[in-house]
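Section 5.1 Outputs to date
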Amino acid sequence: MTARTYRGSCHCGAIAYEVEIDLDAGTGKCNCTFCMKARAWKAFVAPTAFRLSSGAGDMAAYRKQPQAPLKHFCPACGVYTHETGSADYMGGDFVGVFLSSLDDVEPSALASAPVRYSDGRNDNWQNPPGETRYL
């Protein structure tokens, strides 16, 4: 498959975006404390593949540590839409799209998307944790 343009938003619609994602290229789940609590499942894209169409002034953002990606969410409904960050092992700047915020993705496309697991709990981002069934 090739990249497809998806639309996404927070629950109340205040924040909306378009993004080009190739789900066949893979998605990611992590066991870091944020991803565990948020049940985060993401696809990573270059910043040029992500376009915020509304809500730039309405967004709030969170990160626990300065080196962590900045996670953007709607302060009205609480839904996380995307994160922005930079990491050498990711090829530099990136946008992580929270797949649960996609509006027009087919469940079958998500079900067939490969998942890469990261052991973020132990800052071992390039390797999976010993157990992944709970992620």
